[in-house]
């Protein structure tokens, strides 16, 4: 039982999704009895009338905004307009109606895609505005970045208590494994397991393998978000990460090993690498609300692979 959550009414947008389902489970474990998860078929949060109705129905004390229209490099290239508009409108309207209705705290989730393409590594929050984001996901990243601008402006003008968190790439059980929209880890796990199942001698991976990424286990991310909701009340953005980086080549070889794929990995260099490097400075999250990721990367990958194998009956 956590006293902070006792008696609080909490809205979790995207609460039925990958990160949201883990976060809602943790909220229940912490003793939160009133959790409202707006379902997409009942509340289209891109539409202002639906946002107003959702606030009226839920009457929340705290809103944790996780909902996003998101995908990997391919999906971002195919849907730049939709990803910009839907993510911007959801966030802007949720914050504005939250302000109008007097919500006590708004937790906005940004993204590592907010950072400029050539941010010095490790990414520090102070470097958020030194350049333009990586082109393939810039519309999505900038739409999410505007919620930081809104959050800070509303705190300044209206004393509105909103915070802004930027998680690195997440992975774990219940991730999106749809090859048309999945991120790199589920995409590679599916490719490797399919190749093993079908007896394929080779597997094609996107790009050159030289780009680096950092990954945060989904349960660690959920814990970080809830810690911030409990303990952080400032306008400055905060990174949520694990504080390491791995090349896509090494990642692919590790997943191949963990899935028993023993064939050849072929790199399709006609496909984009995305941002050259990604690794966060995580010192502020530890200092401000005591967050540090707890799950070792290989251990998290094994849990993710086992979950997917069980779900798909490999």
In short:
It contains 10 helices and 12 strands.
Verbal overview:
The protein has 314 residues and is of the alpha/beta class. The protein has a domain at 3-171 and 218-241 and 279-294: Rossmann fold. The chain has 10 helices and 12 strands. It has helices spanning 18-29, 48-58, 73-78, 80-101, 138-158, 184-198, 218-231, 248-258, 283-289, 297-312, and strands spanning 9-13, 34-36, 62-65, 105-109, 162-167, 169-171, 202-206, 212-213, 215-217, 238-240, 246-247, 264-268. The strands form 4 sheets. Strands 2-1-3-4-5-10 form a 6-stranded parallel β-sheet, with helices on both faces. It has a two-stranded parallel ribbon with strand order 6-9. A two-stranded parallel ribbon has the order 7-12. Strand 1 (9-13), helix 1 (18-29) and strand 2 form a beta-alpha-beta unit. The longest helix has 22 residues, at 80-101. The radius of gyration is 19 Å and the shape is globular. It starts with 8 loop residues before the first strand and ends with a helix. The model has no long low-confidence stretch (mean pLDDT 96).
Task: Set out the fold topology.
Blueprint: E1 9-13, H1 18-29, E2 34-36, H2 48-58, E3 62-65, H3 73-78, H4 80-101, E4 105-109, H5 138-158, E5 162-167, E6 169-171, H6 184-198, E7 202-206, E8 212-213, E9 215-217, H7 218-231, E10 238-240, E11 246-247, H8 248-258, E12 264-268, H9 283-289, H10 297-312
Helix pairs in contact: 1-7, 2-4, 4-5, 6-8, 6-10
